[in-house]
Specification:
- By secondary structure, the chain is α/β, with parallel strands linked by helices.
- The chain has a single domain, classed as UDP-N-acetylmuramoyl-L-alanine:D-glutamate ligase.
- 39% of the residues lie in helices and 23% in strands.
- The protein has 12 helices and 14 strands.
- The strands form 2 sheets. A 9-stranded mixed sheet has the order 6-5-1-9-10-11-12-13-14, with helices on both faces. Strands 2, 3, 4, 7 and 8 form a 5-stranded mixed sheet that branches.
- Strand 9, helix 4 and strand 10 form a beta-alpha-beta unit.
- Bound molecules: adenosine monophosphate (AMP).
């Protein structure tokens, strides 16, 4: 009886106490070309995808970023309408918004960056608003490791979980800074090639073990259409990727994954390895929507039913039952 009450209480605590997620990442204009078409300048940025994904959960969803004078109010309204608190998104009156343009080849795993105009992001010094300084979960999007550290240093207390994304560019240009920042976080979210580069090891379990020694308690390795792995010192879990008939535009899939992962962790307030498995599946399910349309189009207009059905598909992908006696 007591167990039942505690269980029920826990369940309802999710809905009574709103845990806080702070995401710091780019809010951008993206222009994307894939074999299926080309966009004009559309809403993009790692912080955008991540916060939109996290908005599927009843949490306090705070975003810190920077845009320029040319950033349309209706794009900010999209974020606000998803209950994202954008009071930490600075609008620089004398600079333009960060602009990124990329082109995918027939093999959608290969992407060329055509243009990166840093604009307002180039001089970005994150200023965390006072009421954002005690998050339960912190998601550091792919920014310079120095900026990522400046965010951690401004917080009043250490979040229960700090997750960070990074990329090979920082490994090539600022390895020492990157290693210092990595040593301060709990979860490192990177792709398979970056895992190999950072560790100097080819085989992912060996590579992940080496990275765990750098500080994080968990390493998540994203493998694109082959799913994702989460490693802790003693455990590993493999999440599949949903085999999709068409990948329309992979931009932001990794950021969506990170937002779904951190949003779910903040919502449940459970940072065990067991719960991280759920978080990885939810991140993967959300990312599988992002790639179905250009930019944020799909993730912006996602219903709960669609998401639940997609999570069921993930369950069914690996659900099997062996008869008791086969040997
Ligand atoms: P992904 O597909 O996960 O690599 O993320 C793509 C998103 O990252 C796009 O929406 C871009 O606007 C954003 N992005 C690309 N380059 C950078 C950068 N150097 N710093 C911050 N955000 C970036």
């Amino acid at each position: 009886m007591l167990f039942f009450c505690v269980f029920k209480l826990n369940k309802y605590l999710y809905f009574i106490i709103m845990n806080t997620l702070l995401t710091v990442g780019s809010v951008a204009f993206d222009q994307i070309e894939t074999p299926y078409g080309k966009t004009d300048k559309i809403l993009g940025g790692a912080g955008t995808f991540s916060s939109l994904a996290a908005s599927n959960f009843k949490i306090t969803n705070n975003l810190v970023s920077v845009v320029g004078y040319d950033f349309p109010t209706q794009y900010l309204d999209i974020l606000k309408n998803h209950n994202i608190d954008i009071s930490g998104v600075e609008i620089k009156k004398d600079e333009k918004t960060f602009f990124w343009s990329g082109k995918y080849h027939q093999n959608m795993n290969q992407r060329d960056t055509l243009i990166t105009e840093l604009n307002s992001l180039g001089t970005f010094v994150p200023k965390i608003p006072e009421n954002f300084k005690t998050p339960d979960v912190l998601m550091l999007g792919n920014l310079t490791p120095v900026i990522q550290r400046q965010v951690i240093e401004q917080l009043k207390q250490r979040p229960k979980i700090i997750a960070m994304d990074t990329m090979n560019f920082w490994m090539n240009s600022m390895l020492d800074e990157l290693l210092t920042t990595i040593s301060m976080v709990d979860v490192l979210i990177i792709n398979d090639e970056e895992t190999r580069q950072l560790s100097g090891e080819y085989f992912l379990p060996v590579a992940a073990k080496k990275i765990l020694k750098m500080g994080p308690k968990f390493v998540i390795v994203k493998k694109g259409e082959h799913g994702a792995l989460i490693f802790s010192e003693k455990q590993v879990f493999s999440a599949p990727a949903l085999p999709l008939d068409i990948v329309f535009d992979p931009t932001g899939a990794g950021d969506t994954f990170a937002g779904g992962f951190t949003g779910y962790l903040a919502f449940t307030n459970d940072y065990s390895f067991e719960n991280m498995k759920n978080a990885v599946i939810i991140g993967s399910a959300l990312a599988s929507f992002t790639v179905e349309k250009f930019g944020t189009e799909k993730i912006q207009n996602l219903s709960k039913i669609e998401l639940l059905n997609r999570i069921d598909k993930f369950k069914n992908l690996t659900n099997f039952c062996l008869p008791e006696e086969i040997f």
